[in-house]
Write a structure and sequence with these properties.
The protein is an alpha+beta fold and 448 residues long. The chain has three domains: 2-181, no CATH class; 189-399, no CATH class; 411-447. The chain has helices at residues 7-17, 102-109, 135-145, 179-186, 264-278, 283-287, 292-305, 367-371, 385-405, 411-419, 428-447, and strands spanning 2-4, 29-37, 40-52, 72-76, 118-123, 153-158, 169-175, 192-196, 199-202, 205-207, 237-238, 250-252, 318-322, 329-333. The strands form three sheets. Strands 1-2-3-4-5-7-6 form a seven-stranded antiparallel β-sheet. Strands 11-12-8-13-14 form a five-stranded mixed β-sheet. A hairpin with a 2-residue loop joins strand 9 and strand 10 (205-207). Helix 7 packs across helix 9 (385-405). The protein is globular.
Amino acid sequence: MALSFSNAALYALSDYGANYSRQYADVYFPAQLQVTVGADAFTYADVGVRMKGATSRTEIAESDGTITDVCHFKLNFGATFDSDLYDLALFTSFRHDWSSDSVGRKARKKRTFAGMSKLDLKYLPRNQDDQAYSQDIYCYDVFNQNGIAAPKARWLALNLADAKMNEDLSYEAVEDVDEDFLDHHFGADGGDLYKCTQVIFSSNSYSVADLARANAVSVSADASGYANGTRIAQGYIGVEDNLDGYHPNYDLKTNDDGENSDFSKMAHLINVAYSLRYAKAPYALLDATLDIPEFLKFEAVSYLLGNFDDQRNNYNNYYVYFRPADGKAVYIPYDWDYSLGAHKGVDISSFMPFHQSSTHDLLNSNDLYWDTILTNSSLAYASGASQSQAAMQKEYKADISAAMDLGAITYASYMAFLAKLANRLSSAQELSDVKAYMATKNGLLTAY
């Protein structure tokens, strides 16, 4: 794969995209894309390219087009470069005039590659210690093997077509979690999709997607005493607006109409999780709101793969999709590069399957874990709910065993998977980390 920018476009992408909190950080700039798949070659003119990520952004180019660093990219095959942004003096040189080509504009908006309108490119390895190469790709494959919808991902060699750096870079191509993803994995779209992440305000200030009511929903209750708070305007639930500096923890990605969107399903999930923990709401209320079998399997696989920066350990990097057929919430994983022992200083290998509040402090503030797999003798449930929780924990344990039987944390499975990847590199550190993590986790679960 090759991306060819003009010097001006590359420098603008580097300059405006380097800081996640900047007003124009997510503006797309044009580039020509060339892709070779086997014997077939494809060329796409004027693909929209921007920087992606929060903490990984950095300036990557000088004004003369010299490449100085690497970053993650998001490609938009349907970019038309004619929104109001391109009327600004900063970006008028990148504006495309479609006034005499309405047919071409319509075709451009529908343009896809391999059925995808967008594609994420993530540089490898993921950190300076050469720890994270293929863990992300492997984990997505394990999720999909276990019936959890996860992005498809593969290695690729990326050339930025810079005359001063004529070499291929190692990148990972990742299916974007969007409407196309919903079509591919669920066979239908139309439901609300939320990206759930940490939002960083400063080096020591951030908010998390922990399903807490604070700053997300108002504090109110119905006649039964169950939480029924509505979404707080411009709070943690919303539609991201980089121009106005608004970054919600629960960012609505489909059916979005800014502040006029319907945020009720996410607000309801937060209310239900709270009500079971604190208001003794019945299990049936949770069952009507969350696809419990999918959630338990999602958590079982997550536990085995051990990502310190996921929905469970850091309240980050997951999606929630509200399936239109029944309105139930479905969890979708994303950004699993720091898994399988890949991050120094955060050892998850020794964590037990059933955390208690005394052994895993972060889970204390997530009501949904108290309602399902977090065990603590002081937790009081409504009549019958304790039996339902016991059944959920039994199912969760069975899901862990089933994923292990499929080889989720077998080092031979990891190596066999790597052998199938084209353009792949690996490091001794990566393989050592994965092998050690899997050995520890398997030993722990055998004793358990």
